[in-house]
Amino acid sequence: MSAVVELRDVHVVHRARGGPFGRESLYALTGVDLTVAPGETVGVVGESGCGKSTLARVLVGIQRPTSGTVLHRGRDLWTMPPDERRTAVGAGTGMVFQDPSTALNRRLTVRRILRDPMDVHRRGTKAGREARARELMALVGLPPALADALPGQLSGGQRQRVAVARALALDPGLLVADEPTSALDVSVRAQILNLLLDLRERLGLALVFVSHDIQTVRRMSDRVITMYLGRIVEEAPADRITDEARHPYTRALFSATPSLLRPRAPIPLTGPVPSATRPPSGCPFHTRCWKADAVCSREMPEVSAASSPGHRYRCHHPVQEDESTDDLVRESLPRELR
Questions:
Q1: d(CA 171, CA 326)
Q2: Which residues contact 19 (CB under 8 A, 6 or more apart)?
Q3: 188-233, pLDDT tens digit by residue?
Q4: CATH number of the domain at 5-221, please?
Q5: Full-prediction pTM beyond 0.85?
Q6: In 3-state terms, what secondary structure has residue 266?
Q7: Which of 138, 156, 337, 330 is nearest to 251 (CA)?
Q8: What is the distance between the alpha carbons of residues 205 and 37, in angstroms, rounded to a whole number?
């Protein structure tokens, strides 16, 4: 079965203000390769500014790459005629944005918001679109009485349910959720996460889930990718990403997540955080990595495969498979503090 979406050597470079001549390049994505299979959930983790949201926009066709290929169901998205591309993206993908209060048109009722994608793509009859809007409300757990409510009359959780329903209006094969719970109260987050999981199972959706909450990403995903400075530095099955990650940055990222069941000290990262406008030579993580040497600062590491299927990483000096995070905490400390 062909992939729902596939990225091949995708680069995104923005022109930003600054620099000696008033403009400089910001490298948002660099050399990204990613395949999302039907029915699969891929989690995306990394620090702010690492390119997660840019990746999400590329996947749904909002952001055109500077170079590289984006394939939807095996077809090159950016060589299609514009009308065909709009149809392919509009019908084949859906996106749930971070803040539902700004993602929804505050002047439209819930009914109109849900009907809008069908109106734009002329899907079915008017009566059929109305019926589909009611069906979508039931699908995401919204009572029929809210059909004529405006977004400002809804709670944050209800608004995000409307956003999810709108993203599903045209039966897409791929749903991209970019920080879908970060603007919600803690009490509501679990409801939205459970809703996404339920919809994935019921509808057979491929789901790309982007979040700062890396433990939630791990629990929701089949596969997790770690991004650093616009690059994918590791890709692993979700059940192996915490304790068997081979890239030092992935281990450091997951060690910084608090856990009541397994409390431990985080791996300390020192050294300068590089800028996306002036990325360092070689491995982008070498300025903060306790394993880095001269090779790391000169050469970009090739993609290597771990012993477990589906586990790949980019690192000259990877963490050994039997090394615990506690071992790495001690290793990363200055010698006099070990």
A1: 46
A2: 277
A3: 888 999 999 999 999 999 999 999 888 889 889 999 999 999 999 9
A4: 3.40.50.300
A5: yes
A6: coil
A7: 330
A8: 10
